[in-house]
Amino acid sequence: MVKKEEIEEVIKILRANVPPHPYKSRDPFKVLIATVISQRTKDEVTYTVAEKLFEKYPSPRALKNAPTEEIAHLIYPAGFYKQKAKKIKEIAKIIDEEYGGRVPDNIEELLKLPGVGRKTANIVLSRCYDKDVIAVDVHVHRISNRLGWVTTKTPEETENALMKILPKRYWKDINELLVMFGRTICRPMAPRCDICPVKNYCKYYKENKKW
Fold first, then answer.
1. For the chain, which has fewer Cβ within 10 Å, the N-terminal or C-terminal residue?
2. Average pLDDT in the 39-58 region?
3. How far is Cα 44 from Cα 22, in angstroms, rounded to an integer?
């Protein structure tokens, strides 16, 4: 089993070498909607269309009253934009009418919202409400397995496994750190192991490097 000291060293190195996450908002509603938009969509597209949407409809009330077709048009570059537009409008309506315009700050309520799974809920909780939770997306799942921190098949398994080995003080930050590491170096295809600052700690590199 990987040692916690080694995990801490990897995190320290990544913090010094990985660029910061480009999406700066800590507004729960904006982060929630942006994360819904991000599903099956490239990050750079997500941020652009999310800001375009919020410029015109900045609040749950404004967005719930927006025509679904207009929402779809504004988020058009995102994948599955028609389906997402319907979910976004539904979410805005529920938040405005059932939660007084405030995004819930607990996972049970967040998971009741259409199109919201554990990843999305935990991103909102960690990023906006400073909760000690681990948001596991494709980057966190892939990289945690590549590094050898976990041996899991699903994001939920990864979340549970990481909670056992990752010091709690890193839980809410690990998603943004590994997302940026995954975008720049530890890519899904053709990871850039030659320039990876943590390759000597990586199970994947040790098993696949050319001697």
1. C
2. 88
3. 9
